Amino acid sequence: MSDIEYEELAERLGAVTIIDVRTAAEYSGEGGYPCDPRQGHIPGARHIPVESILDAGDLRALVGEPDGAQLVVYCHGGGRSAMAAAALRTAGYDARNYSGSWHEWSRRAEP
Fold this sequence. Notes:
The chain is of the alpha/beta class.
């Protein structure tokens, strides 16, 4: 499964489940990286920390989406989300990594 790019994700907001695997402070905008022009999360994204995904005994119960659901996973720079996407694919989800992640999204105008 290939990564998803900004343009495709922006067009598909609301049509896919987006999962933010960063820390709670990064997700809320209270903490983050100073290199990003703004803080927060992609509109409609659910927060499930990467540790929760990697340590979950039952990903279906954690994620709550049906088999084959389309998921997009992101973090700050694509590393944590790549690990989470791989775990989700192993569990049977159609999971794609947004490798540009928040580092790229925070530099674009909101769709």
